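Reply to dn_fold:

You asked what the input looked like. This is it:
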Amino acid sequence: MKLRMKGGEFDTMAMKKVHKHPFIEYGLRTQESKKQMKEAENHLPGGVTANIKYFAPYPVVMEKGKGAWIKDVDGHWYVDYLMGYGSLALGHGDETVKEAIFQQLKKDGTLLFGTPHRLELEFAMKIQDYFPSIEKVRYTNSGTEATQLAIRLAQVFTGKKRIAKCEGHYHGGYKEMLYSINPSLEEAGEEAAPYPVPESAGVEVDGQEPVILPFNHIEGMEKLLNKYKDQLAAVVIEPVQAGFIPADQEYMNRLRQLTQKYNVVLIYDEVKTGFRSSLGGAQNVYQIEPDLTTLGKVIGGGFPFGVVGGKSEIMDLTSPIRGADVFEAGSKGKGTARDILFHSGTYNGHPTILAAGLATMNKLDQQFDQILRYTDELRNGIEGIGKRVGLPLKTCGIGSIFNVIWNEETNLRHYRDLQKTNTKLRRELDFELMRAGVYTKPLNRYSISAAHGEDELTFTLKAYEKACRNLKGGAGVS
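and this is what came back:
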């Protein structure tokens, strides 16, 4: 229904007729967001600085965050469960993190050294306390950069070039890994032997693409690893797909056995799951040590940051002690630049970011159990409301991340199961929740922070009750 205007105002009778539809209500509530996004389109492609920030018909523009809450430019406050896609484990504007940043700037007197500094070592030692598999680390400026470096390390270490990844897994927005993240089932091929499906313009199936392994399908994974073992440098995997679909223990055990047998580097991409599945990541849950680990999000304390860590014999390939680097190729008495794996970056190991990350990890030591209790209470509450109202809601996740699935009969084991759920009604639920003051990007996972407490839990469950009843009564849900 098209809304009519009376004297410059929306016709309230027309509004009453369409009030229960969440998409129309969204448009009425977010006029300033719509205006700003329209202007942004003149200066930014699609009005955004990263594709992940967009959703139709236009994203909410936020202007302030505090604790567990976030405020949009139209003046609406929401309990925030996006939390910077899981990066903000302590919530918005945590005072401990801000004080750590202030003290670092005060003590060091600079934003950037461009030299070694004390926090580089301190941070590395802290990471090693949580991740025994990490013997040495290198810092990057994002999780994407971390996975890129990990892959390069594996290729040089093994002398092989091909990479394998699991269907449905995401490892950063770069060409080499943009395959089979969320392809249609028509394109994806057989479950046991998936096709490599490009997920971006400029990405092709040309013989250099990754081998696509079936997730949580042991027999299919075994056959593909055996077939390509002489070509594979690494298997890179999200041990918990998208942060909320856990791998089977048997699958992970067998993957570790085969990668060791075939001299294939096993890379755990724990950008989402580090300090989320547990303080020691998913590898602590599965009690498996990968050869390399990539981290990001939480450990940056809200800043752009990434880590590659792992076995010394692999990580030392980057050591400049071994020979000249690219800027010293003409030096006498050293090897050539080709003798080491060159890795650099002006902002790697930025002191302010390391200070924020250390403060975050130290506080999580004290508050992680509290975060897990909140997560369990919220998940139980959501599922209970679904049962009372008569909607098929199920939560799926591990640690402080979960997602809400609209199909309680589906046992989620991989992305193909996710495609069997009702994403259309889940999306409507998300818009109803925004109306009621609860925010995550539509269809996205929930990430819980230490800032979420009893008030937020009560508010969220009341909002869920209201949103579910609106959908049951007014959106044709049966």
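DSSP finds 16 helices and 20 strands in the chain.
Hope that clears it up.
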